[in-house]
# Entry
Amino acid sequence: EIVLTQSPATLSLSPGDRATLSCRASQSVSNYLAWYQQKPGQAPSLLIYGASNRATGIPARFSGSGSGTDFTLTISSLEPEDFAIYYCQQRSNGLWTFGQGTKVEIK
Amino acid sequence: QITLKESGPTLVKPTQTLTLTCTFSGFSLSIPGVGVGWIRQPPGKALEWLALIYWDDDKRYSPSLKSRLTITKDTSRNQVVLTVTKVDPVDTATYYCAHSLTYYHGMDVWGQGTTVTVSS
# Structure
């Protein structure tokens, strides 16, 4: 089973800052990597699929990159509504797993 | 517009079987590539993928829970059912179902979730 490790666990930033979140897979997942945002009391929502494709309606300040085992989610300039928890997810050999999440909090 | 809604008991006793239903609209589970998955989230913890069923009835389970899970679909009723046997307090969580256009697209639409507590 592939394990996804997200870092850092918590990111303390201010509005307008650039956020860089990392997701590392224990073995290659090609580009079958998605990113989700979850706000308190809400279901997760899809941000990025296929490692670098923005989902419908996702602002351009969100971007994803990487392939194989190392992936990055970048938020170019944090808006107040971007402070949330972010999860990466992979699909390999028919099985899906999530990372442990990175909390982006207001500094 | 795709929507999904989870339903089931809010309280279950230890050792019982939990049955959750995902009722969806706006898509058909007979379209090639489409799947519906179940994910749970214990209070204050991370998301955990449980199971997924595809349009062709291919079923996939989390290895750590495989022996306790069963996922089925009723295409005519637009429902996907997940059963979890022998529940324990550690199964207390919010359970979500979600739509997957293809495995490449991740889970693009989620239900609101249903909270299940396992307690005697």
User: Anything to note?
Assistant: The mean pLDDT of chain B is 97. The CA atoms of residues 12 and 42 of chain B lie 15 Å apart. The interface with chain A takes residues 37, 39, 46-49, 52, 58, 60, 62-64, 96, 103-113 of chain B (CB under 8 Å). The longest strand of chain B covers residues 18-25.
